Amino acid sequence: MTDQEIKYDGSESEMIRLGLIDESGSLIVERRNEYKEYMQMVQQKKMVAPAPAPDREKLEEYFREREYQRKARVARCRAFITKLFGRSR
């Protein structure tokens, strides 16, 4: 079966097709409640749980490590330039 989206336009013929009302036009409350519960479950499955926020201590450690790596990279570049040209700025 192909993946089809359930569409409900609210017309009387659609309500009869879904079994929410009978041919006489009276509402079947149990079926309507079941339909609402089903649509709520569908909506909950569509919603994706947000990713948990990262731990502040881990973030601080991450940025500390990144800063350390950046400083080390700058120091290596300066040492290379000093060695290459034989003088500092």
Overview of the structural elements:
The chain is an all-alpha fold. The protein is built from three helices and no strands. The longest helix is centred in the last third of the chain and has 30 residues. It is rod-shaped. 2% of the residues are buried. The model has no long low-confidence stretch (mean pLDDT 81).
Keywords:
single chain; 89 residues; 3 helices; mainly alpha
Tell me the overall shape: rod-shaped
The chain-level structural class is mainly alpha
Distance between the termini: 73 Å
* Low confidence ranges: none
Mean pLDDT: 81
Rg over C-alpha atoms, rounded to the nearest angstrom:
32 Å
SSE order: HHH
**How large is the share of residues in beta strands?**
under 5%
- Number of helical segments with 4 or more residues: 3
Number of strands: 0
Task: Summarize, please.
The chain is an all-alpha fold and 89 residues long. The protein contains 3 helices and no strands. The chain is 62% helix and 0% strand.
